[in-house]
Write a structure and sequence with these properties.
The structure holds two protein chains of two kinds.
Chain A: E1 2-15, E2 18-31, E3 35-39, H1 46-53, E4 61-66, E5 69-70, H2 76-86, E6 87-90, H3 102-107, H4 119-132, H5 148-160, E7 166-170, H6 178-195, E8 198-203, H7 206-209, E9 214-219, E10 222-228, H8 233-239, H9 241-249
Parallel strand pairs in A: 3-8, 3-9, 6-7, 7-8
Antiparallel strand pairs in A: 1-2, 1-4, 4-5, 9-10
Helix pairs in contact in A: 5-6, 6-9, 8-9
Chain B: H1 3-14, H2 16-56, E1 59-63, E2 69-70, E3 73-74, H3 89-98, E4 102-117, E5 124-131, H4 133-139, E6 143-148, E7 158-161, H5 162-172, E8 181-188, E9 191-205, E10 215-219, H6 220-226, E11 230-231, H7 241-248, H8 251-256, H9 268-271, E12 289-290, E13 297-302, H10 308-322, E14 326-329, H11 331-335, H12 337-374, H13 376-384, H14 389-425, H15 432-438, H16 449-476
Parallel strand pairs in B: 5-10, 7-9
Antiparallel strand pairs in B: 1-13, 1-14, 2-3, 4-5, 4-8, 4-13, 6-9, 7-10, 8-9, 11-12
Helix pairs in contact in B: 1-14, 2-12, 2-14, 2-16, 12-16, 14-16
Chain lengths: ~250, ~475
């Protein structure tokens, strides 16, 4: 099942008197449950594409379809609702709210929507996520009291708290050392398998790219490779839960 | 605690320097407002109590005039408009007596005169309230005799205030003595009138005030005659050269100094025109008779002063329905320039407050703009995570109101401390302006709880106004800013 589709997407930025075409007619699709890497060197258009999939930026031309909804004609309010309901974000610089504790940062997106988990149910869900990302003992700590890896774990839990269909991660390991970066990617992959959440992350680190099931390589704003390695999510699901678990171990 | 309030409080603590800048401004604003209003309210209440309790009553009735009228007469440009008599006086007093809320009524004629001892060139100025002592003392108990006694009902005589007696001694060069006949020269609408009246008392006021210390009292008929409220005037009364000189004196010269008439201009016995008893009534000429039905003003006290405006309104409606050219008003109209002086001080204070508020808004706005710029990434992140613009707007509003509330309350405590200190300091008024402002000789400001509430509301409003521009900048922050590495 296709959850994200880009059709001939272009993005042009004005730079002084000239225009810079960051994305030049890109088309690809992402299936539900994919663990996909958008790879490429700096300036290849990774972040721009991620921004358009994340509905935080609009394409100059072409169509972006998220969960069957074309985003082109949505107003700011509808885009915000789409982001809140369908998407989760993991940022390169973690972007935690400095005045909130670990628990409160994870809880924050739940307080923004109309449909909210209440009291005990909410606390249990957040505790579960904290357990999943291994931060239970850091419950009341502020972001500035955590290491980079711990902060990114908080960001992962925050991205998952609204049970989004898609999690977008813009160079999630860029500010981490390689060992921590790998741990974070492993964690993301584990959650991808367990929760069937689609993960789309950008990176220029070849080692990390290798962890993805689906790789889209970019250069100068165009797709140079759209590669699937291993079984697709649809194939894994077709084989049943045991197969999904096996795939997670790959 | 709601997330917005939580974020607000923690941001205030996180950004201590900015919070302090804004907070100190807000707290200072509350201190200025509460202390300033305490001054204003104390002064206004002092003047109000002084006038209502001692001079004007709760309801003040006068004939309709083109210019504003007060207890001191019509305040017309150049003094052209004379104070008219109240029409249908008996009908109005009967109406007042029928009002169950009215507890007492008295009436008054206001006049001006030059005061001089017999056979003396020395003169001073007097503002005279012509009263019926019986009804007047029932309503107003401010005057008490320092020398002699109070004027008795039906008696012809004069009571001058200690302040004026001292002024005559100091500036006009004569010292009034109890029992002494004083010559009063009035200048009313029917020309100059001269009366010889015995001084029965030198009086003090229980509630001393620069606004009222110069008031002297006389029996109403004396003031009526001096003011030209007479019947049976002798049109052929001859005048002398000295009187001619007096008639030609300009208004300014009459009121500009303590000795305004040339020596020997007035010789009381030569043309004393006493209407009643006394030495001045030796003249064989027919005397001008007071118009005993003529009054300038009626003053009434009511049970519940809060109901006075409603009663004044109902009286005005009744005057209109009866075709009576009279007007009823409250104490402020009656107090005239003295009530206005408090209003003027309040207006000046309010203008100063507006200027301070504008400066505070600009400083706060700049500080908040810096805060928005610093938090661009945070705002972008919130927007990316699904926060609508309304959430961002509310977040800044709650932060602004939180800081306003916290420092507003601190400001209130500081203001109470300042007022307590001022009361303990026993600051005395060194000039007439301060005496009006202090509502007495010593500064005793008291806080009106309502003014505390209003001060907090105003400070909150200032904070809200100051946050509008910064929040408009915050709302322009796009969620894509979250993706941009700082």
């Amino acid at each position: 099942m296709v959850i994200v589709e880009l059709q001939d997407v272009r993005k042009v930025y004005p730079l002084g008197k000239v225009e810079v075409e960051a994305v030049k007619g890109v088309s690809f699709s992402i299936e539900k449950g994919d663990f996909i890497s958008i790879a490429g060197p700096s300036g290849s258009g990774k972040t721009t594409i991620l921004n358009m999939i994340g509905c935080v930026d609009r394409p100059t031309a072409g169509t972006v379809i998220i969960g069957g909804t074309p985003t082109k004609d949505l107003n700011d309010k509808a885009l915000t609702s789409l982001r809140h309901g369908t998407l989760g974000f993991i940022f390169q610089s973690f972007n935690l709210i400095p005045v909130l504790s670990v628990y409160e940062n994870i809880e924050f997106p739940l307080l923004l929507g109309k449909e909210r988990l209440r009291g005990k149910e909410r606390a249990q869900w957040i505790d579960y996520l904290m357990e999943e990302v291994g931060l239970m003992q850091w419950h009341d700590h502020k972001p500035n009291e955590l290491s980079g890896g711990q902060r990114q774990r908080v960001a992962i839990a925050r991205a998952l708290v609204t049970k989004p269909q898609i999690v977008l991660a813009d160079e999630p390991t860029a500010n981490l050392d390689s060992a921590t970066g790998e741990q974070i990617l492993e964690l993301m992959k584990k959650i991808n398998r367990e929760m069937e959440t689609t993960f789309i992350f950008s990176t220029h680190d070849a080692k990390i790219v290798g962890l993805a099931d689906h790789i889209i390589r970019l250069r100068d704003g165009t797709v140079t490779e759209d590669l699937r390695q291993g079984k697709s999510a649809a194939e894994r699901y077709a084989e049943g839960p045991g197969a999904a678990g096996t795939a997670a171990g790959n | 605690m709601p997330v917005l309030v939580r974020i607000a409080f923690r941001n205030l603590l996180e950004h201590k320097a900015k919070s302090l800048i804004i907070g100190i401004l807000l707290a200072l604003g509350v201190v200025i407002l509460v202390v300033g209003n305490a001054f204003m309210d104390t002064a206004a209440q002092g003047v109000k109590d002084t006038f209502i309790g001692n001079y004007t009553g709760d309801i003040f009735i006068a004939a309709k005039t083109k210019s504003p009228v007060s207890l001191f007469g019509v305040q017309s440009v150049g003094g052209q408009e004379a104070t008219p008599n109240i029409p249908y006086y008996d009908k109005i007093t009967a109406k007042l007596s029928s009002e169950k809320d009215v507890t007492g009524v008295t009436s008054q004629v206001t006049g001006f005169a030059l005061v001089s001892p017999k056979d003396s060139d020395k003169q001073g100025f007097a503002l005279l309230f012509g009263i019926d002592p019986e009804s007047y003392y029932k309503l107003f108990h401010n005057a008490y005799p320092l020398e002699g006694r109070l004027l008795k009902p039906g008696e012809e005589g004069l009571m001058i205030s200690k302040h004026m007696a001292d002024q005559y001694a100091k500036e006009a060069g004569f010292t009034p003595k109890i029992g002494q006949d004083l010559i009063l020269t009035g200048f009313g609408k029917a020309g100059f009138k001269i009366r010889s009246v015995p001084l029965v008392g030198i009086i003090g006021y229980k509630t001393a005030s620069d606004a009222t210390d110069f008031i002297s009292y006389a029996d109403v008929n004396t003031v009526r005659i001096l003011s030209g409220l007479t019947v049976g005037n002798d049109p052929d009364e001859p005048i002398t050269a000295a009187q001619e000189q007096l008639l030609n004196a300009s208004g300014d010269s009459l009121f500009g100094g303590e000795t305004v008439v040339a020596p020997s201009a007035v010789r009381a016995p030569a043309f004393g025109a006493g209407a009643g008893t006394g030495a001045a009534s030796k003249t064989p000429r027919p005397a001008a008779q007071a118009d005993t039905g003529a009054w300038h003003f009626i003053m009434a006290r009511v049970k519940n002063p809060a109901e006075a405006p409603a009663l004044a309104l109902s009286l005005n409606q009744w005057f209109a329905s009866q075709g009576i050219d009279a007007q009823a008003a409250g104490w402020k109209s009656a107090a005239g320039p003295f009530a206005e002086s408090i209003d003027v001080v309040r207006v000046v204070f309010n203008i100063a407050i507006i200027i301070v508020a504008i400066v505070a808004i600009i400083i706060m706005m700049n500080t908040l703009v810096i805060s928005v710029i610093e938090r661009t990434g945070e705002i972008g992140t919130m927007r990316a995570l699904g926060a609508q613009r309304g959430f961002v707007r509310k977040m800044f509003l709650v932060e602004t109101l939180t800081i306003a509330a916290v420092f507003g309350v601190i400001g209130v405590f500081l203001a109470f401390g300042a007022i307590g200190a001022l009361n303990l300091a026993h600051i005395t008024a060194s000039n007439p302006f301060l005496r009006i402002l202090f509502a007495g000789d010593v500064l005793h400001p008291a806080v009106n709880p309502l003014s505390v509430v209003w001060s907090l509301v105003l400070v909150g409003l200032v904070a809200v106004l100051a946050h509008l521009y910064p929040v408009s900048l915050a709302l322009k922050v796009q969620p894509v800013r979250a993706m941009q590495t700082e």
